[in-house]
Amino acid sequence: MRVQSINVIYKLIFLVGILIFLPTNTEASAGDRTQAFQDCLYFCRRNNCTADTDGVTHYDRVQPFYLKVLQWDCEEECKYFCMWYTLDRFAKGSYWVPQFYGKWPFVRIFGIQEPASTLFSLLNLYSHVKMIRIFREDASRNTPFFHFWHVYFLICVNSWICSTVFHARDTPTTEKLDYLGAFAMVLFSLYALIIRYIGFKNKILVGAVSLFFASFYYHHIYNLFYVAFDYNHNMNVNILVGTLQITGWLIWCAVRHKRQPYVWRCSATMFLVIITTLLEVIDFPPLLKVFDAHSLWHLSTAVLPVLWYRFLIDDTHYLHNKMVCATKLP
Fold it and tell me: N or C: which terminal CB in the chain sees fewer CB atoms within 10 Å?
C-alpha cells in the first residue's frame, strides 16, 4: 500500500513538471510593436514630456500626488495611456488582446499597477500573520521546531511584502526584490524538510546542512543580480527546488501516515500546491481588466497557510510527546 501511494505521488509530480515546462504561444510584445502604439507614444512624449522654458514638463504640472509617490514618470505614463489607446483600436477591429512589453494590460487603480495581484499578495501576508498567532497559542513550545517555524514565518512575510510591492509597482528593483523573497521562501521550505528529517540532535550535521543552503541561496542571488539576470534560469531553479520539496514532503507523509494520522494536512497542502500551480501554466487576458491567471494563483495560495500551520501545530505536539516518552524511566 505504501509503495502504491509513493508511485501515485511520483506520477503527479511528473505530470505537473511536464505542464510547467510546456512552452507558451503568447507574443510577449505584440501590442507595443504596433504602429498605432508607436505613433501614439511619439506624440505623447512630444506633447507631455518635453520641458518648457522653466525646465518643467506638462506632465510634471498635472501629475497626481499618488502617481508621484509610486514614481510614475512621463515616459511610463505615456506608455500606459497609449496601451489603452491601442487596445481601443484593437477592440474596434475585433482583434485579440495583445501584451505590451511582455505583460498583459491591467487597469491601474490609484497608481497600483496590478491591483488584484497586489491585493491577493496582502491576503497571503494576512493569512500567515493570522496563522502564526494561532500557532503561538496552540503549538507545543517544548520543541526546537517551535522557534524554527517562526523563522519560516518571517521569511514568508518578507516574501509576500516583496510580492505586494512588486505588483503595486513593477520596476527593476522591485522585480529583483520579488525574486529574492520568493526564492528564499521556496528554498527554506526544502531546508525545513531536510531539518525535519534529521532533527536537531546532530549539531554538526544541522550546521553543515544550514551552511549548504545559505551558500546555495547566496550563490543563486549573486549570479542573478551581479552576473546575469536570467529570468528563465531563475524560474527553472525555483521549479526544481519546489518540486524537490513537494516530493520530499509527500514521501515523508506517505511513510508516516499510519502512526501520525495528522500528516494528512501536510499531504493536502502539497497536493493543493500542485493544483494551484497549474494556474501559472494557464495564460489569458485579464478578466475585467484586473484578474489574470497569476493573480488568481495568488488568491488560491492564500488558503494554504491554514492547513499548513495546523499541521505544524500537530507536529510540535507529536514531537513533544515523543520527547516525554523518551525521558520516562523504565
Answer: C
Q: Which residue do the cell numbers 542573478 mark?
A: 224
Which DSSP category does 99 fall into?
A: -
Secondary structure, 3-state, 254-271: HHHCCCCHHHHHHHHHHH
Instruction: Encode the chain (330 residues) as per-residue pLDDT tens digits.
Output: 444 444 444 444 444 443 444 444 334 468 889 999 999 999 999 999 988 766 678 888 888 998 999 989 999 999 999 999 999 988 877 678 889 998 999 999 999 999 999 999 999 999 999 999 999 999 999 889 999 999 999 999 999 999 999 999 999 899 999 999 999 999 999 999 999 999 999 999 999 999 999 999 999 999 888 888 888 888 899 999 999 999 999 999 999 999 999 999 999 999 999 999 888 878 888 999 999 999 999 999 999 999 999 999 999 999 988 877 766 545
Burial (CB count within 10 angstroms: exposed 0-12, middle 13-18, buried 19+), residue 215: exposed
| 231 closest CA partner among 70, 103, 71 | 103
- Which contacts qualify for 216-221: CB closer than 8 Å, 24 or more apart? 216/187, 217/183, 217/184, 217/187, 220/183, 221/180, 221/183
Cα–Cα distances in Å, from 63 out to 40, 48, 69, 72, 265? 19, 11, 10, 9, 50
Q: Cα–Cα distance between 220 and 187 in angstroms, integer? A: 11
